[in-house]
Amino acid sequence: MASVRLLSSVVLAGGLMCAAAGCADSGSSGQGSSTSSPTPSSSFSSFGESWKEPASYVYTLTSSEGERSLLGTFRVTVRDGKVAKAVGLDESARGAVERAPEDVPTIKGLLGELARAREEGADTAEAEYAPDGHPVRITLDPEKNTVDDEESYVISGYKPQPELAPEPEPTGKRP
Asked: Which positions ≥6 away from 82 have C-beta within 8 Å?
């Protein structure tokens, strides 16, 4: 419940800052702020940028929208910063894992897609973040008037995993 309140507060603060920036800037673009969706403020964006991907974690990815091969719900295990295991939780995801398991991303990979979309001037490149800074939703739409190029990712069940302790090396001595 606290995470919902914090996320709501962050979204509200971001929206207020965007609205204030839009009012101060409304004459320069020629577009009214009521018809365009606000972009995340730099403080809202930096909220997610402060998150550091742990070496090992698990999460559930629901990938939807657009005409792509990576659609469905996946349970993903990341070890040493790489996808170690991806399990398709529905028929579409099982097919995607069978065809191209290397296409299932880490959360860092998803954030890379978001950054790339922003750099390339995508019509929509938005993210929502949990209180710890990891993304919980990423929405991408490279071209406003192009059909089926949208991408939507929902990240749930995120749980960092403790690092596996290395096996002790045998000393040759018996206790």
From this structure: 106
